[in-house]
Design goal:
Layout (H helix, E strand, L loop, with lengths): L4 H20 L4 H10 L6 H8 L3 H8 L11 H12 L5 H6 L5 H14 L15 H12 L8 H19 L13 H4 L4 H4 L10
Amino acid sequence: MEIPCSNQAKFHSMSVRKFRTQSDMSPVGSKLKELRLRAKPSLSIRKIADELQIPHASYQFYERDDGYKKPFLPIEFARRLAGILASRGVDPSDVMALAGLKDAEAEPDVREIEAARSQVYFASLPVALPSENALADMFESLLALIPAEATRTEAARILAQRLPSGFAAIGPVVLDLGMRHGSASATAPQSPAIDHHEPEQPSRT
């Protein structure tokens, strides 16, 4: 049976739309992998899984075309992922697009992610570190706070949180002026009473 021209055009248009829809609905794994590889510095599957605090196999499941079959990532997973990749130069809106959000829909999440990114300031300051023994004692006490079942990411987070209090517990560091270059008088000026002696008065006896 011959299909009228108008119906042929309509059928062709429907076929094209169906093809495009199937293409857009392809598994998201390859796109996710592309964004991970775009990160600078680079992120391995193990590293990004650690930062997401999920098992490595769980993350790898999302990247495998024969694993996660859905066309879009879960929204909460995409938000966490966008926060991690944003710190490595990947546009958060590109990550949120993997959750099916268009630019306008992703804008609130993108603004929140950008605002949460820590600002880094550089300064040159003289530093006096505690002795090796004092540092060893401090790190032993910090390591004792880490649960045995903690992941590397969790352990690093605990150390980062406790490090300032660890240094505070050591107390102020006293510089050994004998180890400093230059004379002691140049680094620690003495009081005028020591620097300038009054001449002795002759005895009248």
